[in-house]
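Final report, section 2: Outcomes. Of the targets proposed, Putative DNA glycosylase is the one most frequently requested by collaborating groups, and we therefore present its record in full.
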Amino acid sequence: MPELPEVSAIAAYLDSRMAGLPIRRVDVASLSVLKTADPPYSALVGRVVTAVDRIAKYLVIRTDGDDGEIDLVIHLSRAGWVRWSSDLSPRPLKPGGKSPIALRVHCGPPGEGFDVTEAGTQKRLAAWIVRDTADVERIATLGPDVLELSRGDFATILASRTSRIKNLLTDQRVISGVGNAYSDEILHTARLSPFATAKTLSEEQVGALYDATRSVLLDATRRFEDSEVATMKSEKRTGLRVHARTGMPCPVCGDTIREVSFADRSFQYCPTCQTGGKVLADRRMSRLLK
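The predicted structure is given below as tokens.
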């Protein structure tokens, strides 16, 4: 799933190519991708892109016209991505086809623009066309952006929660921007168990978690600054120390990276670095062994 660093980089990449240019056409392969109907997606045609930025893990393409601002908001979900091209086909997308392309935006000179794609069979990618980003319910209910929190505000949020720290970091209603992959990296850097309870963390542990959150996310964001969108996925994988590295040695201590699996997701951790050597129960494996 694209998280804050990737979405930031994609937004900067698109902004450098689209800002100041008109949208010539928008093609939608599946209307189910669109979560709003007013304004219609055709309202974007002829409007000038003023900026591309992000809100948490949402891409926001801002446009201006005679009737004011209209925004195209995109959430890439688990398997979505953006693909820029200077040779887009002029043919409209075929609705209901097997192509991974869900949405295409033609912008600037003929052939220029980008596709929004989604791999796999679980279609969760979503797009909204709104006059105000607050009209997107998911955005209206977001917690504060993780990189905008002060150390004190971060500590206050943790002190009020009884949830496991892994769940808190990835709950977008509490703190927004962090997903499954970078929460694994943050907890490994902070040397904290994913199952630790937020409100029971010591002042020292809260400080370590705050510092790790900022360093992991900012380092990843800087790593993507000069990257092409097409290479970001592979660069993300090579930069991860524990996430998706089950069975491999921890780069810090050499212990074996372990995994805890759930119905539709999993997380990874190092027992030596994070849990005092204790191997956490893998609920999926426990059920299989019964």
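The chain has nine helices and ten strands.
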